[in-house]
User: What shape does this take?
Amino acid sequence: MTNRITEKLQQDKKLLSIYFTAGYPELNDTVGIIEGLEKNGVDMIEIGLPFSDPLADGPTIQESSTAALKNGMTTEVLFDQLKDIRKTVSIPLIIMGYFNPMLQYGVKAFCKKCEEIGIDGLIIPDLPVDVYHEEYQAIFEKNGLLNVFLITPQTPDERIQFIDSVSKGFIYMVSSASVTGAKSGFGKEQVEYFERIKSMNLKNPQIVGFGISNSETFGQATKHAKGAIIGSALIKHLNKNGASKLDSFVNTIRQE
Amino acid sequence: MSYNANEKGYYGEFGGAFIPEMLYPNCEELRRNYISVMKEDSFQKEFHQLLKDYVGRPTPLYFAERLSNKYNTKIYLKREDLCHTGAHKVNNTIGQILMAKRLGKNRIIAETGAGQHGVATATVCALMGIQCVVYMGEIDIHRQAPNVARMKMLGAEVRPAKSGSKTLKDATNEAIRDWINNPVDTHYIIGSVVGPHPYPDMVARFQSIISEEIKWQLKEKEGRENPDYVVACVGGGSNAAGAYYHFLDNTDVGIIAVEAAGKGIHSGESAATSALGKVGIIHGSKTLLMQTQDGQITEPYSISAGLDYPGVGPMHAHLFKSGRGEFISITDDEAMQAGLLLSKLEGIIPAIESSHAFAILEERKFNTDDIVVINLSGRGDKDLNTYIDYFKL
Ligand SMILES: Cc1ncc(COP(=O)(O)O)c(C=O)c1O
Assistant: This one.
C-alpha cells in the first residue's frame, strides 16, 4: 500500500497542512477538529501529542499543550480517540510530538499502534536524523510510517543532503531560526533561503512551516514550496472560537 | 569500562544530543571546537589565571577534625564554598565565558533555579563586559529575591519563565528557546552537567579542577593522591562531576552521590532521581528523569533549590546504572540537621545543597582510617532565610 502522504504529494496543487494540539481546547475535540478540517479542504493534518516541555515551541503551542495535559490528554487517550478515525477521514494524518512520551510508550508499540489506526507519518522535533537512522528507521518503515525531518536556514548543505537521503515523504522547511509562533511575513532572507533549497533539487518536496498565519504568508511560502503548515494561528482561533467555525478559518487562508 | 563521555557524548547508554534541528548548528559549532579551544595554551593560561586571581583557587582541602572525631573516620572538606560568589558554579562560568569569547559570541544566556548559577553567569559577564540574559522561573524569582537583586546589580537582565511549572526546568526550556531564536551571536552557559552533548562533558572538564586539586592537596597532607571515598551532592551533578572526575577510572576510590529525598522518597515531594527516575529525555540528553508513566516530566521537590531538578546528568545516570557510584538520598530534615551540625562543629555554615552530602555521615559508616573527602559545594549565606524559618532562629 502506498502511503497517503506520498499520494497527496503527487497531487498537482499546493498543500495546506494544519497542526493542532490534541486535547485542546477540550479533551474530546480531537476527532471533531480533524473531521472539520478535512471537510473544509485541508490537505493534511499534524496531530500534536502534547508534552510538558515542548522545547521547540513558542508560547501559543506551549499553552495549548499545558491545557491539553490538564484536560487529561495522554498517549493512550489519543490513540483511543483516534481508533475509528479512518472510518470518516481519508487525508494524511501525522502525529507530531516530542520523543520522550513515545519512548515511554515504547517506540515499537507506538509505531505499531500508529499503523493500526492509520497514521501515515511522524514528526519528532527532538529525534535527530542520525539517531533515527541508526536506531529507529527500520521500526518506522516496518509500520509504514514516514518520518519527517526539519531543516532551518542554518542547516548546512551537507546535512540537508543527508536528511534528504533518509527522508521518504517531505522535508519540513522551518522558515526562520525560531521556535513556533514567530511573527509572520517573509523577508528577503527567507526568500533567498527558499530559493537556495529549491535549487538543491532534493528528492523530497518541501513544506514550509513556522510563521505562516494567513493567506498572504501561505501564498508566499507556497510560491517556493509544495505546501505550508499552519499551527499557532489555528490554536489562537481555537482559543477564541472553540472547535467551531473551522470553515471560516480555512477559507481565510485559502482565499486569494 | 570508561566513565567519561565517548566522542558522541555518551556515558554508557546515557547522554547524546536529542535536540531539535534548529539547535543543531549551535551545538555542532560547540562540539567541533570545545576540546581544541580548551587545549589551547592561551585558553589554559587565562582560565587558570582567573581561577587563581578572581575565583580564589585553589580552594583549601581542610581536615575537619571535630567532625572526624564525631564520626570516627578521617574527613576532609573541599572548600568550594570559598569560591567567589559562594559556590563551585563559577568554575564553569569562567570556563564557558572564555569559550564564548573565543567562538566570537557577544551575548550570553543562562538558566537558573536558586539563582546561584545565574549569579555566577552574571558575574563573569560583568567581568568581560558581555550582555547577559538569565531565565528564571517566575515562582523562583519570588522565592530567591536576593539572588535576583544580585544579578541585576551585576548588570544582567532576569527574564521570568512563565511556561509549564514556572521553575528551573521551564527556565531551561526558555533558555533553549532563546538559543533557537538567536543561533549566531549567542552562547548558552548551562549551569550543570546536563543538556545535549557537548555540555555534560564540557562542564565536567571545567569543574574537574576540583578533583585535580584534591589529588595534590591530599598528597601533601596524607602522602597519597587517592582518598577512599569522594562524597558530593547531586542536583544536575556538576560539583559531583568535578569532585569525581580524576577518580572515575580508579575503582579504589569510592564514589558517593547524594540526592535530595525532599520529604521522603515516596512522599510525592522528592528529587531523588536515581530512585524515582526512569530513562528518558530531558533538555536534549538521554538520562534518568522523574516523569509520569505517560512520559511527561514531573516537578521535583527539595528544600534546597539547587537540587530541585527532575533529572541528573548522563554521567551520573551511568555511574548509578553501572554500579560505579553509590547513591544515597537524604531528606530535608536530615540535611537541615547536618547543616546545623557542621556550623556548630566546624564553624562553617554550608549551602543546604552541600548539607545533604554531610547528612550521610549519620547512616553510612566508614572505617576509622578511611579518608573521606566531602565536597562542600557552597556556603549557606543564600540559605539563611530557610535556616531561620526551619530552626526558628
Ligand atoms: C551550593 C550548590 N551545590 C550544589 C548545587 C547543585 O548543582 P550541581 O549538582 O550541578 O552541582 C547547587 C546548584 O545551584 C549549588 O548552588
Notes: Chain B has two domains: 11-50+89-203, 58-86+208-391. The first helix of chain B runs from residue 24 to 39. The domain at 58-86+208-391 of chain B is CATH 3.40.50.1100 (Rossmann fold). The two ends of chain B are 49 Å apart (CA to CA).
